[in-house]
Amino acid sequence: MLAGLIFWTSFSVSGGSNIRTDDSLLQMSDLIRDRGRENARLEATAAQLRTEVQQLRERDAGADPAGAERLAAQEAEAGLEEVTGDGLTVTLTDAPPDAVPLLPDVRDPRPDDLVIHQQDLQAVVNALWAGGAEGIQVMDQRLISTSAVRCVGNTLILQGQLYSPPYVITAVGDTGQLREALDTSPAIELYQLYVEAYGLGWQVDQRSSVTLPGYTGSTELQHATPVE
User: Fold this and answer.
1) How far is CA 186 from CA 46, 127, 182, in A?
2) Which of 36, 81, 112, 221 could pair covalently with 214 via S-S, beta carbons 3.0-4.6 A apart?
């Protein structure tokens, strides 16, 4: 019955396509690693420029205190300032490569069944936003409105940096609402079926006080289409 539920839920969510595979992206892994190294170099240069900008802002703040206050409020809303409060940490981990079915009548796992995929990370992030998160951090990076979670194989690409599992997602907000959003997400419900069947990692920890740093990368849009 569980095997049938997994197949039916997967089909209904995917519309008939395979939603737990990244085969079409694997050939890009070498290029992405090269770009990751270049992004690291550019980020070091950008960090130096941000320091210079901050020094200029502090120098000019005295000339227009009201303007400086409005700018600070807008930066906080955009995720550019740190946020502190109660929160949750969600950790997703690959199953062991030699994993076997943990429940009767479940087929032997394929490689795609044993790793964390892009849609799994996106499901957690989307659920936390829906639960009213004031801020979200994936690994060591704060998310903003233009952040995109992308995976190649079992490697996470986030804002030019590469990460391997386990993946840690931290959110600040009302912990009750955040937990409810995780518990009621259909996409996470599907992931939980694989947790039970093959041992994918899933752990939610409550944090009494957590501080997320402000986002420090570029906020410039590369591509945009106006809303009609």
Assistant:
1) 39, 10, 9
2) 81
Q: Would you say 133 and 178 are in contact if contact means Cβ atoms under 8 Å apart? A: yes
Q: How far apart are CA 46 and CA 162, in angstroms?
A: 18
* Among the ranges given (15-19, 50-54, 159-163), the one the predictor scored with the smallest mean pLDDT: 15-19
177-182 CB contacts, 8 Å cutoff, 24+ apart: 177/131, 177/132, 178/87, 178/88, 178/128, 178/131, 178/132, 178/133, 179/88, 179/131, 179/204, 180/131, 181/127, 181/128, 181/130, 181/131, 181/132, 182/88, 182/90, 182/124, 182/127, 182/128, 182/131
CB 23 within 8 A of CB 110: no
Give the pLDDT score at 57. 64
| Residue 88 Rama label (left phi>0; alpha psi -120 to 50; beta) | beta
Question: pLDDT value at position 121?
Answer: 96
Distance CA 218, CA 228 (A): 26
DSSP letters along 80-146, please?
A: -S-EEEEEEEEEEEPPPTT---SSTT-PPPPGGGGS--HHHHHHHHHHHHHTT-SEEEETTEE--TT
pLDDT digits (tens, 9 = 90+) for 106-139: 999 999 999 999 999 999 999 999 999 999 999 9
Place of tokens 């009609």: 228
